[in-house]
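Per reviewer request, we include the raw input and output of the structure prediction for the construct analysed in the revised manuscript.
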Amino acid sequence: MSSSFFQGVYFGMVIVASFIRVVYTRQYRKTAVAEDHRTVADALLISLGQGMFVLPIIYVLTPWLDFADYHLPTWAGWIGVVLFAVSLWLLWRSHADLARNWSPRLEFLEGHTLVTNGVFRHIRHPMYAAHLLWGIAQVFLLQNWIAGFSMLVTWLPGYFYRTRVEERMMIEHFGDEYRSYVERTGRVFSRLGK
């Protein structure tokens, strides 16, 4: 298999991920109160978009990043396909389990509840886990030191910022119920033996 095949798979899966997000964003917009202020979290999301969309598109459509190419065996590309497929499932399942509690912003919606079922039974931040898997898959699918690693590089600052702020908000809002939930779950990986 050529690297262009795996590049095509990458962009096909990006379209699927975008569809998942569009569906749930439409549901969110029906229930959210409009706000027009920007936050650090919003800036970090824009940065993430550079790593998951912009640099990969530049890499595939131009020769500008060709100097940073590397080559992996075909089986490594298939590892990327599997990781991205798991990522997409986890992204969809996270949105479905959150249902009307999902927001792209760090906020509480009216009637917000603590979701501890489905994938949230095992990990507190399955969407972030999905994006981590996506970033790792990108390394295998886009075999370029810049485009391949761009999602991981742009994802990490947002992950560290958002989880810190989000968990503080959850403790303030849900108190001991959330503290208990933290004790029995992992942040992005399931705790073994729990």
